[in-house]
Amino acid sequence: MTAVTPETSLGIRQVSEETGLSIDTLRWYEREGLLPLVERTSDGRRRYPPGALRFIRLVQALRRTGMPVADVRAFIEAGGGELANHAGRLALLERQCAAIEQRLTELQDDLAVVRAKIGSYHHLIARGLDCEDDVPEDVLDQLRDDGLLTGLLPPS
């Protein structure tokens, strides 16, 4: 293994700035076994090899998308560049990809409901109605016709 030097690696502050993760978060990731690439200089300072940023961004993406720490750790522990480990790592990533796709579908549905609510509020406000008032039936019919109640009210 080559010696870790300031010339060939990044300090924790630089990694924090590049990734947007706080120094405390980077230290926590390291304690939890999520950053195996962290090395130490002879005086104990953390140094990250150039490839660490790419790896940290993967860990960030997995965590942001809801992968449990235990699964991220399992992904990392199955690493080491051994061909026999690729199938397990790939399976973890494929499961996470499916979970992300499911969540995206849910978020798109939720976004449509929120947009419809915004549209109905704009419509009510334009008519001088309070958004919390009982809405007259003719206004509800207009909102339904305009597609602004899709998912918000049962069909009439």
Automatic annotation (TrEMBL):
Q: Which Pfam families match?
A: MerR_1
Q: Which SMART domains match?
A: HTH_MERR
Q: Name one GO molecular function term.
A: DNA-binding transcription factor activity
Keyword DNA-binding present in the record's keywords: the answer is: yes
Q: Where is the HTH merR-type domain?
A: 9-78
- What's in the keyword line of the UniProt record? Coiled coil, DNA-binding
The protein in question is named DNA-binding transcriptional MerR regulator
